[in-house]
Amino acid sequence: MQVNYKNPELMLSGAVEPQEVAWQSPSNIAIIKYWGKHGRQLPRNPSISLTLNEAHTKTEITYSEKEESNKQIDLEFYFDGKQNPMFAEKIERFLSSILNIFPFLEQLKLVIHSSNSFPHSAGIASSASAMSALSLCLCSIEQTLFGTLSDETSFLSKASYVSRLGSGSACRSVYPVAAAWGETQTLDDSSNLFAVPCSAHIHPIFKSFHDDILLISKAEKSVSSTAGHGLMDGNVYAASRYHQANARFGALLEAMKVGDLERFGTIAEQEALTLHALMMTSNPAYLLMTANSLQAIRLVQQYRKETGNPLYFTLDAGPNLHLLYPDSVSADVSGFVKEVLQPLCENGDVLCDVVGNGPERYL
Ligand code: PMV
Q: Ligand 1 pocket, 210 CB below 6 A?
């Protein structure tokens, strides 16, 4: 597998007609969490996620030849139909940082339109869907102009690699159902540089799994994920955490292979609480869960005890709970969410999602 994507040969020598490319790419929810990084977005431990369906970004790029090629990115960026200077600057910086991978970008004028299926202020990380949609578009442009990515496996590996440079967890969004990222002995072909697909290794029950996201708070996080990853460097528990994540990765993959929901759910909840424990033991220490997050956790655990239904939770780096459960109990869980958990959410907002089939090119 090629891992050095620097390629000075990807430069245009002839004229290019204006063209369009568009990808829809989903968000993902990690079950084993990536928390702590080094170098250029390299993970300190392996992670595994379920790919979502409803929470996605649509990105459309129109590209045409620039009048004069220079080392600059020529970009017009629209979010939800409006120019967005803050996002534009972020994207421009990202594109400049990958010019050695896609040198032809300095020869093109790019007009990018992007939108999310979920509200921007929902407290849901949009970087995974946004960065993967953008990276998939860039790989499609490379394939159209140079024909260098016609093999699907190579295409997706490169898209995953480039997504990772944009936002670590985004590299897992390019695959259907489930993906793993980070080197581990438990999974052949696993890499720190890009994610690998896991769908073939897991029990069919996970292919129709649900993830209802309880929007406990939509406020912007007091500590960003980037800052949170950084604080792992001084965390006294860091070394044992990375060791633990490796062991849990192996145990989770085994549970997912055989469809052991109890084992899966136990590890998912341990991982969620460990992630937040790491925040509470950072220096400075911080808390992203709120009183309603804790209340919802207790209610989920109580519901499971009383009904025997396999309903579990996970958390990302924020206060919102992700409720994980198989399709077989969805009618009962929906009633419970509506009656008992929805009142704990800001404006009663819950986003109901399911495991999805990965990104789709639509132009
Ligand atoms: O990809 P980042 O830098 O936003 O970090 C994501 C971190 C978690 O969502 C907490 C865990 C994960 O593996 O997605």
A: no
Expressed in percent and rounded to 5, the helix, strand and coil fractions of the chain are: 45, 25, 35
As beta bridge partners, residue 295 has: none
What is the domain range of residue 191?
19-202
Please check whether residues 97 and 197 belong to one and the same domain: yes
Question: 252, 264 in Cβ contact below 8 A?
Answer: yes
Q: Looking at the predicted structure, is the pLDDT value of residue 121 above 70? A: no
Tokens of 198: 């896991």
Rounded distance, CA 142 to CA 261, Å? 41
* Percent of the chain clearing pLDDT 90 (strictly above): 93
What DSSP character marks residue 16?
-
Mark whether 29 and 160 lie in a shared domain. yes
Most informative mutation of 40, 225, 242, 279 for ligand 1 (most atoms within 8 A of CB)? 225
One domain for residues 262 and 137: no
Token pair recorded at residue 157: 């590996």
Of the pLDDT bands very low, low, confident and very high (cuts 50, 70, 90), residue 126 is confident
* SS3 of residue 178 by DSSP: strand
Instruction: Write down the pLDDT at residue 28.
Output: 97
Q: pTM of the entire structure?
A: 0.97
Ligand 1: which of 28, 32, 34 to mutate, most ligand atoms within 8 Å of CB? 34
